[in-house]
Write a structure and sequence with these properties.
globular; 97 residues; single chain; alpha+beta
């Protein structure tokens, strides 16, 4: 007897990407980052920010680290892009494990 799964193997999520003329950040929950980055979670740099349960991963090193982990876990990412002239993200707390 062959049992076929009705659950798709690939998942899709939409993440917010914040940017201003100087830089950009990928907004994700801490739990999503911990789940998919696993031991690499501690590699997030001081260039990323956090506020409450959200992380704002800087676009050059930290966001690609998570995007690669999501891809490896079979998750396709789409982006909701939000642009401002002067992002308040720089005023948030710096990332700490």
């Amino acid at each position: 007897m062959t049992v076929m799964s009705t659950t798709p193997t690939n998942k899709e999520i939409t993440l917010k990407f914040h940017s201003d003329p100087a830089h950009g950040w990928l907004e994700v929950s801490k739990s999503l980052a911990k789940l998919h980055l696993r031991e690499k979670y501690v590699q997030i740099s001081f260039c990323s920010y956090m506020r409450g349960n959200l992380l704002y991963l800087e676009e050059d090193c930290d966001a690609p680290l998570l995007l690669e982990a999501l891809k490896n876990d079979g998750i396709e990412v789409k982006f909701d892009e939000l642009q401002t002239d002067d992002s308040p993200i720089r005023q948030y707390d710096g990332f700490m494990v």
